[in-house]
Write a structure and sequence with these properties.
2 strands, about 70% helix, single chain
Length: about 250
């Protein structure tokens, strides 16, 4: 792929995201950039997070997995994730609910029956797990996605009760929103950390160059003048780099 073609693709994605309030679906991205590997998806997700853009998956309830199929796929992820494995064991103990039973539980909850809340929440946990599988390729662990999705489910319950006719759509939206926000924040933090390391490397290179030219290590004011930076800006770079562990003890001493 030519550099100019790649830049045009990025510009197209950024323009489309701007039209949709900072949200792109995975299908929209695939239409512009087909055949991305998982590693490329994660790199692109980090880039989009840096530009305050979230990636939304498409969930079709008609294509949802059976309970046994869902648990089988989740168990693959749980092999190297003890906490997720424990969670799935607890999930298996819960009764399987039909759509009619879920509707009845929601109706009872909407009517003010407090005993219906826990059974209803439990009935929606498989939906959270299935939604987490959709986002599993965006860099976050499945257990983190499920945890965030469960929080979104709980927080979205009051909105679902207020919009009772579309409660399934409301809860799904809240769960997806929670997962997307988690992925966005995680990628944004990763970007900040990477930039801090890059800045630390730039500082180290300039300190070494200064010592080569003048025969002694500069203090922070001399280094700021040398790099044509404001002293406060240089101090902030030092602080960020130190917070991210980008400096060794020898670097800080210099």
């Amino acid at each position: 792929m030519e550099v100019q073609e790649f830049r045009q693709m990025i510009e197209q994605l950024l323009a489309r995201a701007k039209q949709h309030e900072g949200v792109l679906t995975k299908e929209e991205i695939s239409a512009v950039m087909p055949s991305l590997s998982d590693e490329q998806w994660q790199a692109l997700a980090a880039f989009l997070a840096e530009h305050e853009i979230r990636v939304r998956e498409i969930y079709d309830p008609k294509e949802s997995r059976s309970q046994s199929s869902l648990m089988k796929e989740l168990s693959i992820y749980a092999k190297d994730a003890p906490l997720l494995s424990m969670y799935l064991q607890e999930l298996k103990k819960l009764p399987k609910r039909t759509e009619e039973e879920e509707e009845a539980l929601f109706a009872a909850l909407a009517a003010g029956d407090p005993k219906a809340k826990d059974p209803f929440i439990h009935s929606q946990l498989p939906m959270v797990c299935e939604t987490a599988l959709l986002y599993a390729s965006q860099g976050s662990t499945l257990e983190d996605l499920i945890q965030e999705g469960n929080v979104g489910l709980m927080l979205g319950l009051s909105r679902a009760l207020a919009e009772a006719e579309s409660w399934r759509k409301v809860l799904l939206s809240e769960v997806m929103e929670a997962m997307e926000q988690h992925i966005y924040e995680e990628n944004a933090n990763e970007t900040v950390g990477r930039k801090s390391v890059e800045r630390a490397e730039t500082l180290r290179d300039n300190v070494k160059q200064y010592k080569t030219e003048f025969g002694f290590a500069p203090d922070k004011h001399e280094l700021a003048d040398y790099m044509d930076l404001d002293p406060e800006e240089l101090e902030q770079i030092y602080k960020l780099a130190a917070d991210e562990g980008a400096f060794s003890k020898e670097d800080e001493d210099e």
